[in-house]
Each structure stands twice: as C-alpha cells, then as structure tokens.
Amino acid sequence: MAYSEDHIALAAEYALGTLDADERAQVETMMSVDKDFTAMVEAWQRKLGVLNQMVGSIEPRPEVWDKIKTAIGHSEPQSPLVLPEAPPPPAAPEVSEPAAPVDTSNVIRLSAQARRWRNIATLTTAMAAALVAMIATQLYQPDLLPDGLRPKVRTRVVEVKTTVAPTPSAQYVALLQKDSGSPAFILTVDGTTKNFTVRRVGATPEPGKSYELWLVSDKLQRPRSLGVIGGNDFTMRPALASYDTDTVNKATYAVTVEPEGGSPTGVATGPIVFTGKLIESVPPATAAPR
C-alpha cells in the first residue's frame, strides 16, 4: 500500500517517541487495522535501535534532580493556590454585523506538517552522524563498541612456497656397436631415475625382425630383457628402475635380432649383434659451498 508523507512521518515520530497523546492514539489505531503500516513503524524502530546500542545508560547526578525539582516547584512545600478576582464584565457593545469566521484549519495542518518534517530532518541528521561515528569507531577504536557492533577479526593464513631447483643427476652413456665399428645405437641412462633412452644411429631394420635390448650381469642368473627397440629414432623406457645402481652401472648391454615383436619366450633366441658398457658422461651435481 502506498502511504502519504504524513503517514511516513507519523510512523517515524511514533518510533522516535515525539508524538502527543492524540497522535499516538491515531498511530496505534492504524497499526491495529493495517499490517503494512505496522511493518513500516517496526522498520523505523529497527533503524532507530542502532542509536540506542551506541548510548549507554547514565544515572544523573543528585544535583541534577534538585535543579529539576526547583524548576517545577517541588523543592519545597507548595503554597495554597490563590486565584485572582474576576474582573467585571465589560459593557455590551453595540449590535453590529458579525464578522466572518476565519478558517485556520489549513494553517494548523501546515504547521503540524512543518513541525513533523523538521523532526524527521533532525532524526535523519542524527542517524547519519551516528553511522559516521560508528564507522569511525569500528576503524580506529573498535573496543569502545558493544560486542554486537564490533567488526569481526579476520585471520588470513598465507602459505609461502619455496621453489627448490632440482639437482642435476649423473648421466651415463653406452655405445652399442659391433667390433668397435660405428655405433648402431646410443644408450643413455639417468643416474637418479634409471630411465633410459635408446637412440638409433647406424642400425638398419630387418624385414620381419625386431631389435631387442638385454641387460647382462654376473649378479643375474640369465640376461634380462629390457624390451624391444622401437622403429622410431628414440625409444624411452623406465625398465631399469627395478635394478640396483651397481648392477645398472656395471652391466653389459646387448642387442639381439628377434622375431617381430621380440622374443616369445623371454630368453634371447637370435644372435647378439651389438654390445656396450655404460660410462659416466655427466657427473652428479655437488652442493654449492655456503
């Protein structure tokens, strides 16, 4: 429901407590029959409640009460009230035409509206000043506010991650060749991960056949297959991760010619065509002196 400015001002003054008895009775009658008007009054009461939270109760000093009693004449026993004698009635004036009555209803209504809106303007100014004061107190002296108005303390955890540069590991290389001739393959092994890469150099593929790489060591009962060397220039595998470092570094690496796809039995069936042993090509990085 749309309300006039007078209704809105009445609701605000009712919440503020500045209405006289007749106006309060008018507001309470409207509240009893109009739920929307009741909601508007309650909204004003909530807005003005912030002012009450910021002001604590203070007991006046005894001398203040004494001054109040003196001002209203209660500081000493009151003397009997003596009414002045009524003056004699004035002589009756000559009968003349009665003057036309003056309509003062508009003046009274406008005066009441002006007073009401002055009160609303004062109230709005007070609320704005209170909000500014509350915000400033929250920023600079939050301990002075009641618990409900204090800003919540926010804790932010900042995680600082330190990036550690990886330490270069040792690198090993073996030339897989026949009779010290040109290398057919180059085998490279990472000293930390034991991943290896086979680089095809001079070996030529044979139709229907595959090259298979083997690890040969005195610590093993028989050669262990490291897989078929692919048809591309590079073949990369982690097959050495299950062997200890000493076995990997001291073993002999051999290449045999097997049926396409590798040995079907897990044991070398074809001739050994290329062999080689690892040598350290890049030493492991040492800690820098502090």
Automatic annotation (TrEMBL):
Q: Does the keyword Amino-acid biosynthesis apply?
A: no
Q: Where is the Anti-sigma K factor RskA C-terminal domain?
A: 125-272
Q: Name one GO biological process term.
A: regulation of translation
- The UniProt annotation puts the region (Disordered) at 76-100
Q: Which Pfam families match?
A: RskA_C (PF10099)
What residue stretch is flagged as signal peptide? none
Presence of keyword Membrane:
yes
Q: Which GO terms describe its cellular component?
A: plasma membrane
Q: What InterPro entries does this protein map onto?
A: Anti-sigma-K/W_factor, RskA_C
Residues spanning the membrane: 120-140
Which keywords annotate this record? Membrane, Transmembrane, Transmembrane helix
Q: Which molecular-function annotation in GO is an example for this chain? A: sigma factor antagonist activity
Protein name per UniProt: Anti-sigma factor
Q: What is the native source organism of this protein?
A: Bradyrhizobium sediminis
